[in-house]
Each structure stands twice: as C-alpha cells, then as structure tokens.
Write a structure and sequence with these properties.
Alpha-lytic protease prodomain-like, three-stranded mixed beta sheet, 3 strands, 9% strand, 323 residues, mainly alpha, 9 helices
C-alpha cells in the first residue's frame, strides 16, 4: 500500500499543477473547448484526493464490523470518480450548447494549444505508468485513475487539433461544437467507470477471473477431486474470495481432506490470482462412481464411464454432477 500511496500522491500534486495550467489556458483563450479539459482537471484533483483516502482505508486490517476487510472502498472511489466526471461532462455540454446560440470571442488559440498539448503528454505518461502499476500491485483505484488520465490525454490531443483547426479556418462555432462532442465522449467514459464499480459493489461475478480459475482447475485436476459445485466468487478490493463444495472420496480421513483443500488453494493462488478459499467438503456417493477418476477405489460400485468437464454452468449449481 505504501507504493500505491506514493503514486497517488504524485498524481495528486501533478493534477493540481496541470489544472492551474489548463485554467490559465482557458482565461488566455476564452475557449469552451479548453474549458472542457480544464473542468475535467478539477475532477482529476477531487478524484485523486478521494483515491488517496480510499487506498489508506483499504489497507486497514479486518475488524469486527468489516470481517472481509475494507477493500471495497476502492470501488466506491471509482464510483465517485465516474460520477464526478459525468457531472463535469454534463456541465461542459450545457455551457457549450449555450455558446453555440450566444457565441463569445476567442483568441490566442495556438498558445492555448501548446499549453494543453504539454499537459496531455504529461497526463498520458502518468496514466500509462499508473495502469501498469495498477495491474502489477494490483489496484483498481490506480487502474481507474490511470485510465482516466489516458482519456484526458486523448481529449487533449483532440483539443489541440481542434484549436489549430479553428485558428486556421476561423470557423469559431467549431469551438462549442467540438466541446459538445468531447463532452459526450467523457460522459460515456464516466458511465463505464460507474458501471464497473457498481458491478463489484453489487457482487457481480468477474467472469474473466472465474473462467481462468475454472480453466486451471480443469487442467490440473487431481484424481480425488470428484466434482466441484456451489461455486461463488466475490471481489473485496485486491482479493478474490471463493467458496464452493468439493466432493472427495468418502473414506478419506481428516488429514487427507485437509491436504486436498490445501492443494486447491495453493494451485489457484500460485497460477491465477491471490484468492481466499472457503471450501466445504462433501463425501462421495455411489452415484458419483460413473464420473469418478479415483484409481483402486475399494468402495466403487460401477466403473467410470463419463468424463465431466468443469464449466461455469456446471459448477455454480448447488448439486453434485449426477443430480
């Protein structure tokens, strides 16, 4: 968490500096197009402040009120960031629409383009770094902030091109028209951030991670793992929590059962993602024999005649595979 705090702190300081630079460009040019970028910078600073707090809170240990830790606050941070971006986008769209009807003079467009272009390059480099760190640590807050800064770079690039086009053609209504277009793009980006955070806060399954877990379980399946069912996965900050039922031979003693549970835990934590498993073990029944791979089984009632692949549809049911 120390590294995450350091990165967010740097992003916050740079955000304040770049915000002041963009508002300087706006007052210099009086361009709605520049105001679009400057307004989003306010969101960068507010979101960075909340992200810093959320990373601090997510690092706190579990307590009586939060037995799974405080990790979900990172997703709330992303929700707030997306919401603020959306509000900023709507404000810019309204302001630009007003200026289409009641235009005002703009000037110094080349100087403004130079300032905005410089801030865009800085944001792009910082965003790329934060996304890379967000994946390696991992941290959804760093990843979301990084993607937001990349969006800022894209809009800044379009803004520079638009300002130069307006300066070259002297078609000044393009300033407001392009502002509305960029505002709509930012609004869509805000929707995606909010959608992503709400999905996790509502415990929506992360099918990408779950599919990878199932793939590894299939590939490294132990002979004694007869079936897995009632499989559920939830994200809490950086950690994935999975609970399921694992059917094992009924004659296994407690030590052997514990060893098999540990094998599942180690396998996924080593090859997929940091995961906390809650595994309920079930004893096999005679009806399991036809798909059981256990060799030299003393209680087998019929030979194995079927290979049942573990799929998402199969393992999420709260039933053994013969039911």
């Amino acid at each position: 968490m120390k590294e995450q705090k350091r990165i967010i702190r740097i992003a916050l300081i740079l955000g304040v500096v770049l915000m002041l630079a963009k508002f300087g460009a706006y007052f210099l040019t009086a361009s709605n197009f520049v105001l679009t970028d400057a307004t989003e910078s306010i969101v960068n600073v507010l979101a960075g402040s909340f992200a810093f707090f959320s990373i601090y809170l997510a690092a706190q240990p579990r307590d009586e009120n939060h037995p799974y830790g405080h990790g979900k606050v990172e997703y709330f941070s992303v929700f707030v960031e997306g919401f603020l971006i959306g509000i900023a986008a709507i404000a810019v769209i309204i302001k630009s629409a007003y200026s289409l009807i009641y235009p005002s003079p703009i000037q110094n467009l080349v100087t403004g383009a130079l300032i905005i272009g410089t801030t865009g390059i800085i944001n792009g480099l910082l965003g790329w770094y934060m996304i890379r760190k967000g994946k390696s640590l991992p941290s959804i807050t760093l990843d979301a902030d990084g993607r937001h800064l990349l969006i800022d770079m894209v809009t800044s690039t379009g803004l520079v091109a638009g300002l130069l086009l307006i300066d070259f053609t002297h078609i000044y209504w393009l300033d407001s028209a392009l502002s509305i277009a960029v505002g709509l793009y930012i609004l869509y980006s805000a929707y995606k951030l909010v959608r992503k955070s709400v999905a996790v806060l509502m415990d929506e399954a992360d099918f990408t991670v779950v599919t990878e877990v199932i793939k590894v379980l299939n590939e490294k399946r132990n002979e004694s793992w007869i079936d897995i069912h009632n499989f559920r996965a939830q994200k809490y900050g950086n950690e994935l929590h999975i609970d399921c039922h694992l059917t094992l031979p009924s004659y296994f003693d407690l030590v052997h059962v514990h060893e098999q549970v540990k094998l599942v835990d180690t396998l996924i934590n080593t090859e997929v993602i940091k995961t906390e498993w809650f595994i309920h073990t079930d004893p096999c029944l005679p009806a399991c024999c036809h798909y059981c791979s256990m060799p030299d089984c003393a209680i087998r009632t019929e030979p194995k005649i079927e290979e049942i692949a573990w799929t998402l549809a199969k393992i999420i049911r709260n039933k053994k595979h013969f039911e």
